[in-house]
Structures are given as structure tokens and as C-alpha cells.
Design brief:
With 178 residues, the protein is α+β, with helices and mostly antiparallel strands. 37% of the residues lie in helices and 26% in strands. It contains 6 helices and 6 strands, in the order ααβββααβββαα. It comes from Ralstonia condita. Pfam families: Chalcone_3.
Length: 178
């Protein structure tokens, strides 16, 4: 009988369609033992699909009270600069009141090592660490850790906050979509 974690990793590899994904998943979920798939979905706008997303957690994250990992596998090429600009724009839009320009500039700088150019099949993964911040991986390699709980909450709100631009993806990630 295989240990539960190994079964989970094999299931993830099947979902992603590549055995190479096991390494990326294991690295991303290093703080989430044992992590389980909370939900998955895709971001498509007018039939133009950008990425597939999966939320891994020890329990469905309600109120950001437990660690979780958000894994995004891209279907299209996107520059790191564009990823960061979009994240900052969404944080500014969703946070009330919006963070100061100085704070947003600091957060933008903190994201730079994590968000490199991506091509189809690349996986970016963020791990939310309650009370600490976030850890970011690209294709299974640790890129950076941001020790700022306010940043981490604002960043993951892009997908999980009630004001997200992709409410159906949010519901799917949280396991609410049927």
C-alpha cells in the first residue's frame, strides 16, 4: 500500500499529464504535509484560456487561517513584467483602502525574483504561510520568500478574495463549484 502523500503526488502527475510535474508539486507543497487538492479550475476569457490552477491545502482555506499552495500552469507565454504588473493592478483594485504607492513598489520589487517569463507548460506556485508571508516556486525551484503577511494576503486575494475578477475559478478552487 502506497503512503497517502505518494498517492497524492501520483494523482497530481496524472492531473497535470506529466510525470515530471511530481517534482514541482513536491517542492511547492513542502510546507503542506499532508496536502490535498481542495479544488481546480481554469482561467478562460471569451474562449481564450490562459492557465490551469489548483489549490492544495491541509484544509480548505477559510479566512487565511491555514497554509495552502496555489499552483498555476500556463497555457500561453507571458512576460514576468506583465505578471507582476497585473498582480499589482489587481491588488490595488481589490484592497480597500488601496496600499500606498510605496508599499506597492516594495511588493513589486519583492515579486520580481518569483515571476520570470513563462511559456506554455510552465508552473508557478505560491505557498501561503499564515502570519509569515509567502514562498514562490517556478517549475519546482524555490525562487523567493516574501516575509510580509499583508502582501501574502493581498496577493492570494487575487484568486481567492470575494472581489476576484474570476469568481467561477474562485469557487472551483475552494471546492464550491459542482
Amino acid at each position: 500500500m502506497l503512503p497517502k502523500r505518494l498517492k497524492t503526488l501520483r494523482a497530481v502527475a496524472a492531473i497535470l499529464g506529466a510525470a515530471a510535474s511530481v517534482h514541482a508539486v513536491a517542492a511547492c507543497h513542502d510546507t503542506l504535509t499532508p496536502a490535498e487538492l481542495s479544488g481546480k479550475g481554469e482561467l478562460c476569457i471569451f474562449g481564450f484560456c490562459f492557465y490551469d490552477a489548483q489549490l492544495w491545502s491541509t484544509k480548505v482555506p477559510v479566512g487565511y487561517d491555514a497554509p495552502f499552495a496555489l499552483e498555476v500552469t500556463y497555457r500561453r507565454a507571458v512576460t514576468g513584467t506583465r505578471l507582476i504588473e497585473t498582480a499589482i493592478d489587481e491588488i490595488r483594485r481589490m484592497q480597500a483602502p488601496p496600499p500606498s504607492d510605496a508599499t506597492l513598489s516594495r511588493w513589486q520589487e519583492a515579486m520580481t525574483p518569483a515571476f520570470t517569463d513563462v511559456k506554455p507548460g510552465d508552473t508557478l506556485c505560491g505557498v501561503y504561510l499564515p502570519g509569515r508571508g509567502a514562498r514562490f516556486y517556478t517549475n519546482g525551484h524555490l525562487m523567493t520568500e516574501v516575509d510580509d503577511p499583508a502582501f501574502a494576503h493581498a496577493f492570494f486575494d487575487i484568486w481567492l478574495g470575494r472581489g476576484t475578477r474570476a469568481p467561477s475559478l474562485r469557487r472551483s478552487l475552494l471546492g464550491e463549484a459542482r
